[in-house]
Structure to design on (400 residues):
């Protein structure tokens, strides 16, 4: 019996160390182990070409061309990669189904075109609440420091473009035979607008479990490790650190990572003389060491309604670390922290509330001891279980 062939479109893949690459490497391996052939189409900044990673797992790498962190630069590069991807030769055997994981949104459009070309079912695998986040486009430039500049001409031009893009993405979702989300809330939110099956496959922790260390130093050590981007609005944390220090709390905030708002966040920390130190991105092998340093892990999302249906991957690492979690967010992520007893939550973008929490923790370090929640992690983030669910959904799709 022949093995069904999956064509996977993803912006990131092995050997990259970011969350989407890690997620889809173990998922692709899981599908291979369960009887699928997987062919990957992904972007690269290196040399393009086809590579056999292992039996039944082939990777086609398409070179990018436009570097930069701005929305425009990233979109332009994604369009270049999508255009070049149309020329990739996938061999004589047509795929039996096509999976597109987004963002970027251009991947979903490209996958829809390939689905029509090959007349094969499309699976949309969404890591965030798209296209709902497009509704926030006028706030994408809000870094929490400078007033958002109003560009009347840009608004006149971009408003209809964003509207068309949103309707296009909604149409692609409606044509998809299977929708996969990374959160339960978002799966529930889209039920009324899609006709295909919906499942949620969570991200998983990628660090070893560590034990809290709260008695060998005086400072409250706070760690933020992750993207410093628009969705996090880390200016809130910088202000909270400055307020907590002003209130007499002995704290240290360590920010590890990179992103579109790193430079403005650095500038704000310097201006406020906040007790913050910055590290660049660290290799995945050194992440556990950063967690071991910390007393508490900071997880943040800004006050955008679509983000209430998003669970940042760093939350799963924070849960696995055994450390107390301080969170400034709402929605499903807040519910998980509350349900597991893993820490405390303040409202998104609430610098005063976050500062008050840090002052309290600095003065009462016994609160940093939290109950074990490995049971929740084992139930909800077990890779074998999640791979089985994904493979079963794909098998059912092919039967129908």
């Amino acid at each position: 019996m022949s093995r069904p062939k999956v064509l996977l479109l993803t912006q990131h893949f092995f050997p990259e160390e970011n969350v989407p690459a890690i997620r889809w490497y173990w998922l692709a391996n899981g599908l291979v182990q369960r009887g699928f052939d997987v062919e990957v189409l992904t972007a690269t900044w290196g040399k393009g070409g086809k590579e056999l990673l292992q039996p039944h797992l082939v990777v086609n790498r398409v070179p990018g061309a436009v570097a930069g962190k701005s929305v425009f630069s990233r979109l332009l590069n994604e369009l270049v990669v999508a255009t070049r991807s149309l020329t990739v030769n996938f061999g004589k055997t047509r795929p039996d189904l096509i999976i597109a994981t987004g963002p970027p949104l251009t991947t979903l459009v490209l996958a829809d075109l390939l689905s029509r070309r090959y007349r094969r079912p499309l699976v949309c695998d969404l890591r965030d609440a798209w296209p709902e986040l497009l509704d926030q486009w006028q706030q994408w430039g809000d870094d929490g420091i400078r007033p958002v500049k109003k560009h009347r001409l840009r608004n006149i031009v971009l408003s209809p473009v964003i509207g068309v893009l949103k309707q296009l993405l909604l149409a692609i979702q409606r044509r998809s035979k299977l929708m996969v989300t990374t959160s339960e809330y978002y799966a529930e939110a889209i039920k009324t607008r899609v006709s295909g099956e919906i499942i949620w496959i969570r991200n998983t922790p990628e660090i070893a479990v560590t034990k809290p260390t709260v008695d060998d130093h005086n400072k409250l050590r706070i760690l933020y490790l992750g993207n410093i981007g628009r969705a996090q609005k880390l200016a809130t944390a910088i202000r909270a650190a400055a307020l907590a220090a002003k209130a007499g709390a002995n704290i240290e905030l360590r920010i590890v990572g990179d992103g579109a708002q790193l430079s403005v966040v650095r500038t704000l920390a310097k201006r406020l003389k906040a007790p913050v130190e910055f590290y660049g991105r660290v290799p995945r092998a050194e992440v556990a060491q950063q967690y071991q340093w910390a007393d508490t892990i900071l997880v943040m999302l800004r006050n955008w309604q679509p983000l209430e249906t998003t669970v940042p991957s760093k939350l799963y690492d924070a849960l696995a670390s055994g450390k107390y979690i301080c969170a400034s967010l709402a929605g499903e992520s807040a519910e998980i922290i509350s349900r597991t007893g893993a820490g405390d939550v303040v409202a998104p973008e609430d610098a005063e509330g976050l500062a008050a929490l840090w002052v309290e923790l600095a003065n009462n370090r016994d609160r940093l001891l939290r109950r074990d929640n490995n049971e929740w992690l084992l139930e909800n983030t077990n890779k074998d279980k999640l791979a089985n669910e994904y493979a079963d959904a794909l098998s059912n799709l092919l039967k129908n």
